[in-house]
Write a structure and sequence with these properties.
The chain is mainly alpha-helical and 363 residues long. The protein is 56% helix and 4% strand.
Amino acid sequence: MDAIWAGRSLALWDAFTQRCVNGRGRRLRVHEPSRGRWAGAAAVGRVAAWTLSQVIWCASAIEALEHAGQPAVARRWQRGTGANSHPPRTQLPVHPDAEELWTALQWYRSGEAYLDHRPRGKRYYDDNAWLGLVAAQQGLLSGQPRWWARAAEIARFVAAGHLESGGVYWVEPGDTVNACSTGSGGLLFAALALESPLLTEPQREAWAARAGSTLAFLAGPLLREDGLVADHVRADGTVEPSVWAYNQGLLLQIAARNGDGATADAIEAAVARGLPPAVLARQPATFACIWLRSLLAHRALAGSDEAPEVADYLERAWARGRAADGLLRGVSRYDDGLVLDHVSVAGLAAAYAGGPEVWSKLL
């Protein structure tokens, strides 16, 4: 347990929940911070489902600290108890746990899956796969079967976009086959096959076969000459070659969990060459954090408790990214919002603090 990063992750979670969470239960709303230029965004409504998936991931990592022996966590689920806390503005709860955040997710529900937003959203295969992954991670960390049932339900939707080629469409109905949807879907398939306690052996074999085909697609049609994963295959079959860190992490995770050490080592080496720290710092923080938490999982599965790259990234984000209100306004952004990148760094800090016992369960 790294007490310094445990404390810092809790301070970041405090700053987020005090400024970006209102209501409770199904009425719980996660929104952009309401000060200054964000007043309008907070008044309008909720963040997108993709952002909420990473909020739930952060809550999962924060909860894991308690299970890993960090008693301070239990005392931080009420407003105003943290070292960097501010006087409460309302009596509404902050620090919702993963279960309450999952309840709030039902606002996005559409059939057996989730829209990216309302009222006129779409069902993205990658958004849903990220939600399935946080459910599977909670299953691993908490041991509660209901999380595995949630992960399996979402995986069945994602499987509808899974092609014979091994790729997964980006959105329903699809035309492009993206690394983010193929990788997140493949990792979800692999997690179910390897870890779910609710499957029959034929079901486990079926999910494993799907995971293997996504691995082959990422390491085949989407792999660039420099060993990095490209962004997507267009409808005409051409490849859009942009490199984003999170896609590299998805290949690393699927390969590591499928026992393909050669592919895992190759993508780690390719990222070291093509995305050194200065370049990684310019990627959206959420993409960098997904790569780095994948690296934590890979290191733990390989029996290592060393991840200096993660410590260096977090130190830079903590030192240079925090504003006076405690939010990470100075890290690289995914879009004009702040929540997604802030909670991604906070979640990475909590996961890192948990040590290899937590790292091996990160998805």
